[in-house]
Design brief:
Blueprint lengths: L1 H34 L12 E2 L36 E2 L6 H9 L3 E5 L5 H13 L4 E5 L7 E5 L2 E5 L4 H11 L18
Parallel strand pairs: 2-4, 3-4
Antiparallel strand pairs: 1-6, 3-5, 5-6
Organism: Micromonospora mangrovi
Protein name: DUF3105 domain-containing protein
InterPro entries: DUF3105
Length: 189
Amino acid sequence: MSRNWFGTLVSVVVTTLSVATMSSLGVGVLVGLTTDAGALPCDQLPGTAQPFEGNRHIPYEGAPHQPYRTMPPTSGPHSPRVVIPGVYRAPIREELQVHVLEHGHVLVQYAPDVPPADVRALERLGRRHLRDVVVAPYPALGHGIGLSGWQRLQRLDTLDERTVEEFITTVAGRYDHDWQHGATDCLTG
């Protein structure tokens, strides 16, 4: 009898916690929707606006396409595969980078000359924003740090954590398969 009672108690606790968690998530989403002030105007964004290079999927990995006009890329043809946000220790192919951006995420990438302590700081920033950021090495940069969002780019010669944080918090989520929360293409809109 006591074993049956214990199982019932565990079921009630688990159900209660599940309902409480889901309710708080729902309230958090509703609060976010009702208090969203909209996107910052283009002149208040860090980095520089970049021209739209398209948003089509390439048919397969390694398929030929027009070269990207920016380094790192900020839009254009991209892989049908997706890389999830997180911290990576290996470079990410440019076609995958663009798909990350198309989903509203920000890329924080660094060249081989960035000191290990700065790489660790970038990784900490990335972990602080796990839903929004991909941090990875990008040897093609040659020098410094590249911050990219959909049609947005900022290059840094050295680490400035405040600048990286500002780029992440103001650029992430502006674009997710289309402009979001009143954001626009800063070159045409």
